[in-house]
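Running this now, will post back.
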Amino acid sequence: MDQANAAKPVREFVFRGNAMASGGYLKVLDGKPIVLKPDMVTVHGESSLPGIGGISQSLVERPVLRFEPWIRYGRCETHVEGVGDNGSKLTTLRASVEQVSVTTRPSPQDNVPNVREISFAAEHLSLQVRSLHPLDKQPTFFLLSPPVVEGVSLRITPLQGPAKTMSFELDFGHPLLAGYTMDEFDHEFTTKRKFFDEFSPRLKTKGAVKFGDKPPRSEHGYVFTSIVKAYKLDGKSYAGNVHFEPGFGKITFGQMIADGYSRRVSLVKVKTGSDPEGFASYAAVDTNGIWS
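Update: finished.
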């Protein structure tokens, strides 16, 4: 080995990239708690990179579902790819799931009379994200294409008569998934009033945010926000990315957890708060990497 070259260490990049198509489980059914066991698989369609990078992909055509009819989904697919040279690294992540359905029944205390059950449904959900990690700069993150949210709806089935289906429409966009570094986001957030007014309401914070302050971080240094600006349900507009439905629970669209070197995004998360009670998550990706 050439002694001059041996004396110049090459910086190494440690990849991390994860994609998850679909997962969900119940905590309570018919008033009885459910305890998960090691053989109860609750996640289908998952890809994860080793530190060296490469390609990981998964396809599950017919997942074995443990919590039917309350939690259902069909074809799950994920793909994660980590490549690059000594100057920059590229991580590409894809997650998709088809025929999603999460159902629960209103409890008496929900005060939703004459309703047998309420369901969240989606025909197709898909998220594609790419991250670029230069050697000496903060990484940038991009949506490869607009998220797919086909046939997303809420279905309310009465005790008698036909069910009512209401469609969701989602408005996407966020600079932290459009090429902004965290430093660039902080700068515009603290110096441009219009930018602050648009993005401060999307932050998950304990208190009010004042113009001029940086976006609040969690105790571990993360910004909690959303790639969803607003949504419509049955044609009516709502600000934010969280929908609460009495007798059903909470639906969270496009949650993003970010810091200077990572983005973690979930296209849809569901928490049913009645009986059955449970959790579900769809089309989620997590990407960052570290130069040694």
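The chain has one domain: 3-291. More later if anyone needs it.
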